[in-house]
Amino acid sequence: MVDAEGRELPYLDRDGRVLKTVSERYYPSPGQRFFLKGGGESDFPSYDFRGPDTPPTKVLLEQGYKLPFYADLPGMPDHERRAIWGLMVGQEGKTRIPVLRAYTAAGFDPKEDMLQSYGDGWRSATFQPDERQFFGLPGGIMNDWDLRSNLEGLYAAGDQLFASNCHGHAAATGHYAGRHAATYARTAADGIIDSAQVEAERERVLAPLTRSSGASWKELALAITEVMKEHCGANRSAELLTKGLDRLREIRDDLAMRLSARNPHELHRCLESLSVLSNAETVLHSSLARRASAKQLHFIRTDYPEMDPQQWHKFVTVRKAEEGVVYGERPIDYYRPLKGNYEAWNRDYLEYQERGGYLRYLCEEEPRVDTQR
After folding, report:
1. How far apart are CA 316 and CA 252, in angstroms?
2. Contact at 8 Å (CB) between 312 and 294?
3. Higher pLDDT, 355 or 325
4. Are residues 211 and 297 in the same domain?
5. Are 287 and 300 in contact (CB under 8 A)?
6. I need a labelling partner for 153 at 20 to 30 A (CA). Which of 28, 214, 237, 314 fits?
7. Domains in the chain: how many in total?
8. What is the pLDDT of residues 87-98, one digit of tens each?
9. What does the pLDDT look like over 251-286, one tens digit per residue?
10. The whole model's pTM is what?
């Protein structure tokens, strides 16, 4: 990163210490137990220049650096330049059309030109408030210390967990959940198959293929999008959210029952859109359950304008029951104590580590799989 005069911007770690080499960016700071996003804070790294009023930018301006700031693409190794311009700008977020394609058509060459990284150049590619594309605090499945849900034998990992964040989180939780799921599977009894339930689900899943005409999955997806845009945008209220649920109920009773698919690909899209419909209902119910505005959740209730009232420093939960949707709550620190609970729920894993590592244990122990079944 360089400023308007080509001066390289300092790269800071979590504690504001200048990192002089690229390799230093991949190591934690002294005393830092958890390492997130290249040594920075999880959501507010010291080197993140989001605008002229952010602390790092103010400090740099006081030191004589000048806006705008640029990514010095020509000064990077070729593989790094291609990763940023071709992969990140080309494939992540919303920048493929308004940035990569538009800039390329205008003659931009990443080997010759620097990419402005602050100012109006990226405004067309940013997410709008109602799109809720912020990292670190999306909703998710409520799980225990095994990463198991409230449904027997169903484990969760990655982006379906609360506060999920990118590949590293998905890889770590996938390994963790898989380990606990394998332990459960070794001792779990055979499940009892409900033939009537299986047949009913088969009929539901394949229903769109039985219709020669009807609504397409695109119509369903568009209808859901319109409801969420109008009734669950940046500013919400009980009246808007309730009307949104009414509209989603109409969609489920009418449009969703008329879905038609001509092939397996369209059937896949139909089922995907039905899942999106369920998720939309969950979001609306969750928004109704939280009767307060919250800064960290990017959540505004116009009928409850007070921001972050103490009594709402908690998580809200929603679940489907026979009597309908049930709201609940959990304290912010429901998972504590962190160290004690981890040790209590992972004694076998810690023992493996003490004996020389989990992989060594797997290689030395007798197989646990019953080959007769």
Report:
1. 25
2. yes
3. 325
4. yes
5. no
6. 314
7. 4
8. 988 987 778 888
9. 999 999 999 999 999 999 999 999 999 999 999 999
10. 0.71
